[in-house]
Amino acid sequence: MQNNHSHTHAATGNKLLTALAVTAIILVAEVVGGLLSNSLALLSDAGHVLTDLLALALSWYGVRQSGRPAHGGMTFGYLRVGILIAAVNAVSVIAIAGYIFYEAYQRLQTPQPVAGLLMMVVAAAGLLVNLGVMALLWRDRRENLNIRSAFLHVAGDTLSSVGVVIGGVVILLSGYFPIDPALSILIGFVLIYGAWGIIKESLGIFLGATPSFVDMGQLVQAILQVPGVRGVHDLHVWTVSPQLHALSCHITLDEAFLSQRTPLLEGLNDMLLHRFDIEHSTVQFDCVNCDPNELYCGLALRVEEAQHHH
Questions:
Q1: Are 249 and 234 contacting, i.e. CB atoms less than 8 angstroms apart?
Q2: How far apart are CA 253 and CA 240, in angstroms?
Q3: Mind listing the pLDDT tens digit for each residue in 21-36?
Q4: Distance (Å, rounded) from C-alpha 235 to C-alpha 200?
Q5: Are residue 132 and residue 259 in the same domain, yes or no?
Q6: How far apart are CA 29 and CA 285, in angstroms?
Q7: pLDDT in tens, 263-291
Q8: Distance CA 35, CA 304 (A)
Q9: What gap in Å lies between CA 247 and CA 249, rounded to an integer?
Q10: Which domain, by its residues, includes 224?
């Protein structure tokens, strides 16, 4: 399992390095093209490409860190390094959107001439490269929040490139220069919408929230349907990372099933994994004489009291 994880981290890291290289080329092209064409939309897109570059670099670092093994000081390993980086990336997207809004407002007040042809050609080249990077990260984005945040950056940049291309066509055909800052504002809102989803998910993980796909009522009922289970208490479900969900609980058993705890636990773990995608579980078995409302089981004390009375 460790070798498979290492191979996966290495493959993902290589994809991110490739994406880094081509994104750096596009950044240089858009900065030069934006300055020569006087296009705010193209320069805004270049600013977003810069955040793409930082996001991809941070994601690459996060992937490397999350592959490090657990030890005594970090018993869950470094799985949440990528979550922290994803949150930082998302905040940076919102910051760059705020700057775009400010610049767009200035341009709307005083429209400036834009070289539409150059703006369109450079944006089209950036669009093609962004589509290639998105294809490179497409599969990994589903299972890795860190990669998903980087994918969001690139997807947002792809949308902005489409907008800039359209803006270039409009300027060429009509000479309507305010389309340039107007497109920048639209791009900014798209970026904020996507970034908020990443921030919300990251905060949920750090706050120990129940995974959104787990219905606690259904989970409790599924546990209670296991033969021999009389009750469940002290139940906690949380996300260690988007790939690893954990559970801990106390389960009350009929005394007749105490000797069958091992097969019962195996069946319980199998049910948690396949029905609720909970891979890591810690279960404490109690017998029916334990009070689930007590912090500590009082069975031993009651046994001692009964012996004393005898």
A1: yes
A2: 28
A3: 888 888 888 888 888 8
A4: 24
A5: no
A6: 63
A7: 889 989 999 998 998 988 999 887 765 55
A8: 85
A9: 7
A10: 216-309
